[in-house]
Known about the structure:
The chain has 273 residues and is mainly α. It has ten helices and no strands. Helix 7 (151-168) packs across helix 8 (179-192) and helix 8 (179-192) packs antiparallel against helix 9. The mean pLDDT is 91.
Amino acid sequence: MADLTYIERANIEKFLGMKSGYVMDFSDRTFQEFVGEVVGLDINDEKYQYASNSKANRLRQFIKVESNYTFGKLLSAFCDYWLSKVHTGEIDPRDDENLYKECVRISERLKQESIVEHIDAIQPNVDDRDFKMLAKSIRESIEKNEPEAALDRLHTFTFRYLRELCDKHQISYEKSDSLNSVFGKYIKFLIEKKHIESTMAEKILRYSINVIEAFNDIRNNKSFAHDNPVLNYHESVLIFNNVSNTIKFIETIENNLKKIKEPEQADWNDLPF
């Protein structure tokens, strides 16, 4: 459920003109198309049906059902749509300018709250089209509040991500190695090269190898990788947060290593020959 105060809901309803049962100037068809394009959801789905089933009521149900991030993304698109109408002269900005600014503020606040804290860490670490598409599809599942639908892809992403790191640091591994085996070799590299400062962080990372090992079972027996009963929503969120937090930490380490190497490269480039 989108977390809105009474005043925020009132401002949104006024900005979108929902009092009359409409939403801006959308028809039933264009409203369905707009919502589908922005958040990939069908506003005519039964879960959004309520009372008179007007566009305004469907949007009210949408707000009750969907996450902060999902509605924040949709509200942001409504604001962009309003602004496009201003630019074409169809709307006088003086009429709702303050409401527009308020809705932009609300949308930005809502978009900051995702069910996965570091979903932004699910980004490819090499320039590869297929890898980018994989990461994008995972983030879209989180935006739709469907983490259980992306567990198999998260496993695939993590495997590829770690293999690329091993290749980068010339850490040998076999193609037949499991995800936890590749992860273990990368963690061993970090520890041996003293890129981990504290004993506690080292222990957390070593324990994470066991956690990642359990991910293999989830992928094979509780995800859409095969014809399985899929893991429940709340445990899927827990797994996503654990994996994304680990990747975020690794990203931080890799960025620090890059900063250390860059000055050395710059010195070589400055040589007069």
